[in-house]
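Exercise 7. Predict the joint structure of the components listed below.
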Amino acid sequence: MSLKEQIEEANKKAVERMMEAEPYLVDTKLAKDAIPGFREDMLLHAGPPITWERASGPMKGAIIGALIYEGKASNEEEAIKLVERGEVILKPNHEVGSVGPMAGIVSANMPVYIIEDKKFGIRAFGNYNEGIGKVLRYGAYDKEVLSRLKWMRDELYPTMKAALDEARKDKGGINFKAIIQQALHMGDECHNRYVAATSKFMNEIAPYLVKADVPKDAFNRVWDFMKNNNFFTLNIGMASAKAMTLAAHNIKYSTIVTVLTRNGTDAGIWVSGLGNRWFTAPSPVPKGVFFPGFTQDDANPDLGDSSITETAGFGGFAMAAAPAVVSWVGGSVEFAVENTKNMYNITYAKHKYFTIPYLSFQGTPTGVDIRLVLKTGITPTINTGIAHKKAGVGQVGAGIVKFPFELFKDAFKAYVETYGA
Amino acid sequence: MPAKRLTASFFGSLIPFFRGSSFSAEHVFRTTVYLRKKGGDDLVLISSHRWRSPFTINVYIEALNEEIRPGEIFVIDQKQLVGERVEIDLSQANLYLQKIPPMDGASGLEKDEVIYLSKFFSLLATAWNAFYRSVALERICEIRNETLSKKSISKIVGAGNGFTPSGDDFVSGLLASLSFARSSKARWKNSEFAIDDELLKRTTWASSQYIKLANSGIYDELTLENAIAIYRGDLKRAEELLLELARRGHDSGLYIWLGLITGLSILKFGEPITLNYICNRC
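Solution:
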């Protein structure tokens, strides 16, 4: 078999597996109980590996907040000393099959969703979504942020767990691939717009919440939280995407990208045929629409594991399905359509199940191929939230960002070293 | 009176020699227009690409094919290119002069570097669906160990598909490489051979012009930059420029680069290293 045929076969297999994965939301547990190898002194974070010294403002803010939340520090100063003494292990989410938006910080006692891929038996994890604005994932850690996180652990988590136990007993969990599939036909692209997906999810979970017989006031608070947070299901969608991309990972000869991510300092990628080897380059600063009182100058370089959605063939790659998302991330409807069309140039396939009505139900661009990025010079373009560059402020807008070309070039060079015998 | 006036940013050093001559727009594409001299075969390009050449007029415009029609007649005068519908002002444009730096002290890429680039190229080329299945590559592989001659080249000229057949792109790159070695006084002995009209009849007019010009040491700036990098032995730059050249046309850039590196390989190492690598794997 020629090298071209070997690559072709590997990529076909990788993308088929990505598309055929069947991620179900099956359970929720505290991170320390759910994620294999999780340690009490560990904090998971978004993006490629990062040290405290190189971490950006919002990443540092989220680390400080998580340490206070865990009771390991009582204030900012103590938290910083703890990290500087090397008593905190910082580890990328992706290295343990997990994902988190923006700073993506996951600590031992934070609840995480457990996604199980029914087709290939892979598990992936994602933390809970706090809403928008002043939230931990954007680097804010004041009282309001911490008390919300505690409520999420003490009330939202047990309520969700009870409901998911019922859902699992009834039908093996909630089929989140089906929700994404439908949401793409209802105006979501499932990265920065989860309006339809969250509504669909609420429809799915409602009977199990009732069946779980949770106290009425807790039920009401949980229901209101879901209802008032259009991003409630973002993290479930991301963990589903992680399961899909894990199914495509570690396939010999494959040139398909299985992780696209950022940590606020560096952007990083994984390539299926190159395993868990990170390729990194400075993270770009998104351009976008800012909340009142904030400008482009306030923007931090991009961060978050949420670009796992584009890696799996939706999110920014499916913007043509979500014209309304431009009011949130900027640009025009024409740009949204153009971006989707442009991404076909660097992807291996059109998704079999995720389709775009406006493009005559064409499948979404799926499976970024590093060779095609080099061939065309086009890099993955995604939509994203924008964090303030200073720790403690939070989200200041949303926008568009392109991954740096160097990532793909470096990955290709490593591919040449590995396979160019 | 032309309806539209465009402003050129650059014009090549051959353009002034065509003053007073008429050209016909032989082929019109979105980013390039091929002008053919009336009563002759000479080629002048109007291009919106950033790369320049001695025979190119560069203009910044979205779509040349929306402004120029096939068959449109142009006349090059003192300060402008005047067509029936479009006029291109040359008075503000800068002259592009092809400068070939001396290479007598340059080491050229080392053998292991050529091997690395061969691997890089062979894997990159898998992204082009037709590359490894093309008749042109098959022919090139067949003659790769023959002595470079008019006879061997003739088996490649005109081979393959496309506006400029892939075999011709390879030959253009090879001749550009050999002529670069001559004019830059590179240290390696080179085999010079004549390309005659009979050989050029085997292919399209535009393609034959590229071959003829390359044989005379005239080619575009990107090809020149690639040649400089490989003859200078600048691997990092060679890799960057390979990526840029590879994006030219359908797969023209791939074949031009293959010709360029083959030229260096034959001159410096006495064997077509990249071809041997690719042909053994495809």
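Discussion. Chain B touches chain A through 15 residues (CB under 8 Å).
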